[in-house]
Design a protein that fits this description.
212 residues; alpha/beta; 4-stranded parallel beta sheet; 4 strands; P-loop_NTPase; Sulfotransferase
């Protein structure tokens, strides 16, 4: 079973950027990735199976990514999706020595996945609420105030999860800091994951980061 890293954070917070870096550092982010789109021309690095499962969980709990169901409503679906979650986690763990996944929806559903994870590591992506809201408005037409409140809700959910699980290995990365100090932040990721990418992989990871 491989070491697994989970990328968390609100949509438009740089999760795709970090997942793309991980991919170039040799982390298998999934075998069925969502490709590039006009709103994300460099790729999402989201495994379709995780996205589809998260959507099913959120819908069953009475919500969507942009209208998050309450924590208790999600936890009530634990047994319903236990087998699906376990199967998907085992699949990605067996895929390679170093694996991971990224789907911002997991910021809402992580408590359902957590019992089936073996020694996971977490990367949490942060970006200013106004920047996130502006990006959501541009991509999806979501009003600024709604986007800001949605970003705060995701932040609250993540803070609550890590408060309940204080000893989990976690690194916090900030969007603008990664853009401005790319080499240093990639080095932080490498040290955190205890991996040994080649010089070519490091160069490719650094070259992937662009100002959007």
């Amino acid at each position: 079973m491989g070491d697994c890293v989970i990328v968390l954070g609100m949509h438009r917070s740089g999760t795709s950027m970090i997942a793309g870096i991980l991919d170039r550092l040799g982390i298998n982010m999934g075998d069925n990735l969502i490709g590039a789109m006009p709103s994300n021309p460099y790729g999402h690095y989201e495994d379709k199976e995780f996205v589809e499962l998260n959507d099913r969980i959120l819908h069953a709990a009475g919500g969507f990514w942009y209208n998050p169901p309450g924590r208790e409503a999600l936890l009530e679906k634990q047994n319903t999706f236990k087998d699906d979650i376990l199967s998907l986690v085992q699949k990605i763990n067996d895929s390679s020595k170093y694996c991971g996944w990224k789907d911002p929806r997991t910021s809402l559903t992580i408590e359902l996945f957590y019992p089936y994870l073996t020694a996971p590591k977490f990367i949490v992506c942060h970006r200013a609420a106004v920047q996130v809201a502006n990006s959501l408005q541009k991509r999806s037409g979501i009003p600024l105030e709604v986007g800001i409140n949605l970003k705060r809700e995701y932040d609250v959910r993540l803070a609550d999860f890590f408060t309940r699980n204080k000893d989990l290995p976690k690194i916090d990365l900030y969007y603008n800091d990664v853009l401005e100090n790319t080499r240093e932040r990639i080095s932080s990721i490498v040290d955190f994951l205890v991996i040994k990418p080649s010089s070519a992989q490091l160069k490719e990871a650094e070259g992937f980061v662009v100002v959007k």
